[in-house]
Amino acid sequence: MSFLKKLTETVSKGVSTATEKAQQTVEITKLHTQISGKRKEIDKRFAHIGEAVFEAYLKKDLSLAEGMVIPECEAIAGIRKEIAGLEERIRELRNEKDCECGQTVPYDTKFCPSCGNKFPEPVPVPVEVLPDPEEEKASEEAESVVVDVEVNHVCEGCGSALQPESRFCPDCGRPVHS
Length: 178
Description:
By secondary structure, the protein is mainly alpha-helical. 53% of the residues lie in helices and 6% in strands. The chain folds into 2 domains: 1-94; 110-178, no CATH class. It has helices at residues 3-58, 66-94, 133-141; strands spanning 96-98, 104-106, 153-154, 161-162. β1 (96-98) and β2 (104-106) form a beta hairpin. The longest helix has 56 residues, at 3-58. It is elongated and about 80 Å long. The chain starts with a helix and ends in a 16-residue tail after the last strand.
């Protein structure tokens, strides 16, 4: 294969990867915008609750506020669930999940490299992405990008690559010995 052809393929792969990252960033930005709008809606509902309670206070009967407070609280609970769903979608797009120890790890990690916590098997979530005709054409022409990574540490149990700070193998959960 000629040098020019290899260079062209490498650039094409890089452009394809950059395009995917840009689309991911745009989608994440849209999700953050939706979350922000929902939080503003929650703030408005909190204000309505406060007004209802204050009006009932002025009438010296707080039970008068109950009719308005309960539906507002139920709506807030629903909005919070929607926000949690949007935040989960962002984690999926970033290919991340959170461990109970607070560490953020790649989505396909089986064991936390910091604390050794075993994650449940991931359940695939169908994602509907509308195809872009230009992107389809580019993806047909481009191959997947392979990145060579220098590995300094490997698990003694399964041979998986380990990060220098890992205390447990992310694939089999075996403790890492320094």
